[in-house]
Design brief:
1045 residues; alpha+beta; 8-stranded parallel beta barrel; 60 strands
């Protein structure tokens, strides 16, 4: 900060002192003397007021300070205040308030807090050396009257749901052990105290479909999926771990009515009971808490269901407690809570999602229900949005509405990068093929509570040991009611959370350090050695020197902005096994223990293993798995794809035959009905061939509507459950009598045909080849079609079917020669390897964006657009090009303009209907023309609103070595001399509208000439089209007006 304003004496009535009582055997003056000694260490007296009171400043700073204000205020005697205030007032009479203004950038100076609720500040008399000093005391009230009514801490935890943990299963045992230790091992990493898992329902639940333990009423598999495995591994590391479960959706067979009421059925109660018994019988423990249905608005149909479910739990001798809502409070819920006592007695906890502030619901408190933030944070794990958000909310949720537990989504981001909500986890592990994982800041801001307190401890109430800091921030105190051990968590974190406009501190974030004095009382009082741990953006979970109590039982703490600090009487904490006090690390040396400056940007940190793309070739014959397993790297997005064994051989079978009760169907006004498909591979795969054998197991229709089919997909670029009904990519869909090559699974057909029928159970061989803009589809070795399309330049492989049994075998992917190596002419283009997507490097903290980001297609503009560039050496242009978007059919005039003279030096009419080359561009020849170094050139295409689509300016690619720079440029159709707009941005790669392109001839220095006039003698077809176009527009008239602005 540029300045620190120090309030030297704060004038207040002693009657307003909050939480300042007489310590047993300790007078007020003894406490004050202890604080003076602490505050004046390293200070010297620099001024004396007219009553003899001294002003003390830090040594070495006195000559940089000045006294800028002084005022008197009478303080009336206040003998009823509970302290020896009469002596204080008699001896001081009047007090002074002095404000000392330090010079700029005095970062070394301490901050003395101003007055605030639950902090105390007062003036000390001149008789005690007349120190002019302001200070605050936080009373940590451990007296029995407070402790008996304090809120029990239920533990903080994290959520594995929405397929967020899918790829963790596929890591090697060594790396899985390291990751799981960091999440669940007590006093090691995040030290999670509760694990909440999804009860899979064979349906899309955010970033995938989690497998159900019962695909049908006569099916039961207590080892299916990965949530059972994760529960077992977590409990193995912490037997005291609390567990919770919740369904996002359910198999359709449980429904006995129209959606959504069909969910609230007796069959669903039995379905949930069998899941609970699976855990009990295979793992030897009971699930502690069970939710009703994720984020469904409360409706009256829930009431009899909840009551019946609660009775069923008791009749099955299960101790599992119910959690209501797992969403948001409604007036209807509060009304039933008050009027129906059996309903109210059926559950113990009300779970709120992303609550931020206290609900206006006194009925909840009168009913005696626990309040939890049962899903929270949902932001990327970068410091500002991840660790900074989580550390603050763990405190805020208790202070604002009495929450005794916060559960983070997600425990880990272990899903593919091309899904919605990418990066929303406490740490990252999405490359099992490379072994790379990243330990992120939320692990350590969570540890500031979970390594220092256990479930069953108690929160000291607001104003009795917990509260809000005067200059921004919060503090909470957790106490062991048996031993008196305590931990104080103080934070001034400024991270922006995903919901509620960031859920920031009120009234604002801290901008300068704050010094606080704490006084343990009652059960907490005693001669403690206090250990201190701190996390900042630059240093995560760092052990600081211990502090000891001052005379009078006080301790002091200065906390800087954007930090979280824990002061504790406990011991045994560690940073991944490193105690930082002489202890020995027990963890693998590969663990990441240092932060990087991420500022919201995903970076590859040093640590586990180096990142690498998914390797090609990739093959899986599905033989080396047990029956019912999920194959490595396969990630279901709808339905359930699992191994089916027949002897030693295995196949991949799609097992779901009825439409699931889908979480997102009719949710928030959406009507999502997701397709059945699974994906595998790298979102960055571009030029490759993929083949698989597929077969139907019965004839008929899918879900009673469409014919049964199998599908092979490629370049599956992205899928976001909140935004897309169908995945982005190309699919070859095959029924018994027809085929089509489509965007997604038939939503937009690029080609289609019929064929002679094949027998059910016959294997069919499906193959797709992707090379640049060209796609070729094969069935049983015969080419069905080839199409040209540029919409999806890269993406994963996928397998799909309807809601019926289908099988796949012998999946194989191998690379093809890169399209960028294809050269339709001698020489090189201005730009090659066009990129129309980018894996997100900067996250949005308030959304669940689709990743990668796709360059928008537009046709809403009348005028000129393209790029401006300069060359580093003399080059000869022989072709002009425009990138072909799907469906382009109009002639487009592309012109090259010399920006130093504003003359058109080349122009061509480009016809996209003939199809582009492999590089995605349609080209037209022009008479050879020379471009010279040092001059600006404008390459533009004329576009009309409502016409062909073009790509927005964020399209990028690889520049020719002969080009110095490229920037997007545009001008309206009626442009004048000042109309050209050059888009400037901070992106590292070159960008342009269109994209548009020029082809530089192979260098022949002897042939290069100055600019040549455009004539119809060469390249007659292109020139004639260009002239016709000029006759219908004012381009030539406009261009002569252009000049360099």
């Amino acid at each position: 900060m540029n300045r620190f304003l120090y309030v030297a004496v704060l004038v207040i009535s002693l009657r307003s002192v909050v939480g300042l009582g007489r310590l047993p055997g300790t007078g007020f003056e003894e406490i004050g003397a202890a604080i003076w000694r602490h505050a004046l260490e390293g200070h010297e007296k620099v001024a004396t007021d007219d009553r003899g009171a001294a002003v003390w400043l830090r040594r070495g700073r006195a000559n940089r300070a000045k006294l800028v204000a002084s005022e008197r205020a009478a303080i009336p005697a206040s003998p009823s205040s509970g302290v020896a205030s009469d002596k204080l007032v008699q001896r001081s009479g009047h007090v002074q308030r002095h404000i000392v203004d330090f010079a700029e950038n005095d970062e070394d100076a301490p901050l003395l807090p101003s007055s605030a609720p639950n902090l105390t500040a007062w003036t000390l008399p001149p008789a005690a050396e007349g120190v002019v000093q302001a200070f605050g005391i936080v009373s940590l009230d451990g007296t029995s009257s407070v402790m008996d009514n304090a809120t029990k801490y239920d533990g903080h935890g994290a959520l594995s749901a929405g397929a967020s943990s899918r790829l963790l299963w596929d890591y090697s045992e060594l790396q899985r052990t390291e990751i799981l230790d960091l999440l669940f091992k007590p006093r090691f990493g995040a030290s999670l105290q509760m694990l909440k898992v999804e009860i899979g329902g064979d349906t899309q639940s955010t970033d995938g479909a989690e497998a159900s333990h019962m695909h049908s009423s006569d099916d039961l598999d207590c080892e299916r999926g990965y949530e059972f495995w994760l529960l077992r591994e977590a409990k193995k590391r912490n037997p005291a771990l609390l567990t919770s479960a919740l369904a996002w959706g359910a198999p359709g067979w449980i429904s006995d009515a129209e959606f959504p009421k069909g969910y609230y059925s007796e069959a669903n109660i039995q379905y949930h009971l069998k899941w609970l018994h699976c855990v009990q019988s295979t793992m030897g423990f009971e699930i502690d808490y069970l939710g009703i249905w994720n984020e469904r608005r409360f409706e009256l149909a829930q009431v009899p269901y909840v009551k019946t479910l609660a009775r069923a739990l008791r009749s099955h001798n299960l101790t599992t407690q119910l959690v209501a809502l797992d969403g948001w409070i409604t007036e209807e819920f509060l009304h039933v809570l008050q009027s129906d006592h059996e309903f109210a007695d059926s559950f113990e906890v009300v779970g709120l999602h992303y609550p931020c502030s206290a609900p206006n619901a006194p009925e909840l408190f009168s009913a005696g229900k626990k309040l939890w933030a049962s899903e929270e944070v949902s932001t990327p794990a970068a410091w500002e949005a991840g660790g900074g958000c989580l550390g603050r909310l763990n405190n805020q949720n208790f202070l604002r509405f009495g929450s005794s537990s916060t559960t983070v989504w997600a425990a880990i981001w272990s899903a593919y990068q091309n899904l919605g909500c990418f990066g929303h986890g406490m740490m990252y592990a999405y490359e099992p093929w490379s072994g790379h994982y990243e330990v992120k800041s939320p692990i350590w801001t969570m540890a500031h509570t979970t390594q220092f307190a256990e479930p069953g401890w108690k929160y000291l109430p607001v104003n009795s040991g917990s509260g809000f800091l005067p200059e921004g921030g919060t503090y909470v105190t957790l106490v062991n009611p048996r031993t008196g051990d305590f931990s104080v968590v103080v934070e001034t974190l400024v991270g922006s959370c995903g919901a509620n406009d960031g859920c920031r501190h009120q009234p604002g974030d801290a901008v300068q350090p704050q010094t606080l004095y704490f006084r343990p009382q009652g059960l907490l009082a005693g001669n403690h050695t206090l250990r201190v741990w701190r996390t900042t953006a630059q240093s995560w979970f760092e052990r600081l020197p211990d502090i000891t109590l001052l005379d009078g039982g006080l301790f002091a703490l200065t906390i800087a902005p954007d930090t979280i600090t824990t002061v504790t009487t406990t011991s045994g904490q560690s940073k991944a096994g490193a105690s930082q006090d002489g202890g020995v690390r027990s963890a693998s040396a590969t663990l990441i223990l240092r932060p990087v400056e991420d500022n919201g940007v995903l970076q590859s940190e040093e640590g586990s293993m180096n990142r690498s793309p998914f390797p090609l070739p990739y093959t899986d014959n599905f033989d080396n798995y047990v029956d019912g397993a999920i194959p490595r790297f396969i990630a279901d997005q709808g339905g359930a794809f699992e191994i089916h064994k027949s002897g030693p051989s295995g196949v991949l079978r799609q097992a779901v035959t009825t439409r699931s009760i889908e979480w997102l169907y009719n949710w928030g006004g959406w009507n999502r009905r997701y397709p059945v498909f699974t994906t595998v591979g790298d979102p960055g795969w571009r030029d490759y061939a993929v083949e698989v054998q597929g077969r139907l197991l019965a004839s008929g229709t899918s879900d009673g509507r469409e014919p049964q089919f199998v599908a092979l997909c490629g370049r599956m670029l992205a899928f976001a459950a909140f935004a897309d009904d169908v995945p982005a990519g190309y699919c070859l869909n095959v029924t018994q009598t027809s085929w089509d090559l489509s965007i997604g699974m038939g939503s937009v057909k690029l080609a289609n045909g019929t064929m002679g029928g094949f027998f059910v159970s016959d294997w069919q061989s499906l193959r797709l080849e992707f090379q640049g803009s060209r796609i070729v589809a094969y069935l049983n070795g015969e080419a069905l079609t080839h199409v040209v399309d540029t919409q999806f330049p890269a993406g994963q492989v996928g397998l799909a079917s309807g809601r019926h049994h289908a099988e796949f075998d012998n999946l194989h992917v191998h690379p093809l020669d890169a399209a960028s190596a294809h050269r339709p002419f001698e020489g090189e283009p201005l730009i090659s390897d066009v990129q129309l997507t980018a894996i997100l490097s900067k996250f949005s903290t308030h959304t669940c964006p689709t990743n990668p980001v796709r360059v928008p297609l537009r046709h809403d503009f009348d005028g000129f657009l393209g790029a401006t560039f300069k060359v580093t050496s003399t080059k000869q242009v022989q072709e002009l090009g425009r990138f072909v978007a799907t469906g382009n059919s109009e002639l487009h005039n592309v012109s090259l303009i010399d920006g130093s003279s504003w003359t058109v030096i080349a122009s061509a009419a480009i016809d996209p209907s003939a199809g582009p080359e492999l590089d995605g561009f349609a080209w037209a020849s022009v008479p050879p023309v020379t471009v010279l170094p040092g001059r600006p050139y404008f390459l533009v295409s004329f576009e009309r609103s409502g016409g062909d689509f073009f790509y927005d300016w964020t399209a990028s690619g690889i520049l020719s070595p002969a080009v110095d720079s490229v920037s997007p440029v545009w001008a309206g159709k009626d442009a004048d001399a000042h109309s050209w707009q050059i888009v400037t941005d901070e992106l590292q790669t070159p960008h342009m509208y269109g994209p548009v392109n020029v082809w530089f001839a192979k260098d022949r220095p002897a042939d290069i000439q100055e600019h040549m006039e455009i004539t119809p003698k060469r390249h007659e077809e292109s020139a004639q089209r260009s002239n016709a176009w000029f006759a219908s527009t004012s381009l030539s008239a406009v261009l002569v007006l252009f000049h360099v602005v």
